[in-house]
Amino acid sequence: MKFNLSEVTEVIQNRRTVYPEFFSDRKVHKEQIELMLDNAKWAPTHKLTQPWFFKVFYDEGTKTFGEFFSETYKKIAAPEMFSEMKYNKMKNRAEKSSAVIVACMRRDEKERVPEVEELASANAAIQNMLLTATAYGIGVYWGTGGVTYKPEMKDFLGLKPQDQVLGVLFLGYPAEEWPRKTPRKPREYYSEWIED
Ligand SMILES: Cc1cc2nc3c(=O)[nH]c(=O)nc-3n(C[C@H](O)[C@H](O)[C@H](O)COP(=O)(O)O)c2cc1C
Q1: Does pLDDT of 40 surpass 90?
Q2: DSSP for 45-61?
Q3: Closest CA to 93 of 71, 66, 56, 68
Q4: What 8-state DSSP symbol labels residue 148?
């Protein structure tokens, strides 16, 4: 065995979504986030396009993100749909986090590979980050939808129209015990073998 497979399996199987409401005040260090970013780049990448891009909001930067996120929601929501609760949640979740990382796919200039491959690669890079966070005991909530996919978000991040936002990662240490596993269907459900 080249690596400690039981530890690798433990990390993979114990990665969990942790919502910022359950974060403690313990801070995630910059060096920990740097290792997450360093590990991200070892995702497979067709033609080495390396299509991932991460914008890290740290320290007071989390407030900057929270302001943008909630204010943009207020701006674009239809008045009859606007929810003060949602607005506050968007602001508070960012401020409750040690860091907010917006994970993106930055399209290869020459479009050497299909978009689906760039998305696959950038999402694999995100998983590397999540597993690194798990090994540290850091919880991450991967959020999407709403403002995440709006052009205002791309402008805010300085992305081009052909790039894509894949999610907002909220980082923090869980206040209490690590969340329990969410259910998964068994292997037989999602795999088939052909042996003759
Ligand atoms: C692409 C993607 C987008 C997600 N977006 C949201 C989201 O907007 N809101 C949310 O509550 N969870 C979101 N999640 C997290 C899932 O809800 C979570 O992974 C699922 O409940 C399984 O729980 P686990 O991560 O603890 O295994 C997202 C996950 C992925 C992969």
Answers
A1: yes
A2: -GGG---EEEEEEETTH
A3: 66
A4: G
Domain ranges of the chain: 17-175
Strands (E), the chain: 52-58, 99-105, 139-143, 164-172
CA of 14 to the centre of ligand 1 (A): 15
Ligand 1 near 66 CB (within 6 A) = no
Cα angle for residues 50, 54, 56 (degrees, 5° grid): 155
The residues, ordered by sequence, that sit 6+ positions from 195 with a Cβ below 8 Å of its Cβ are none
CATH number of 17-175: 3.40.109.10
Question: Per residue in 101-138, pLDDT tens?
Answer: 999 999 999 999 999 999 999 999 999 999 999 999 99
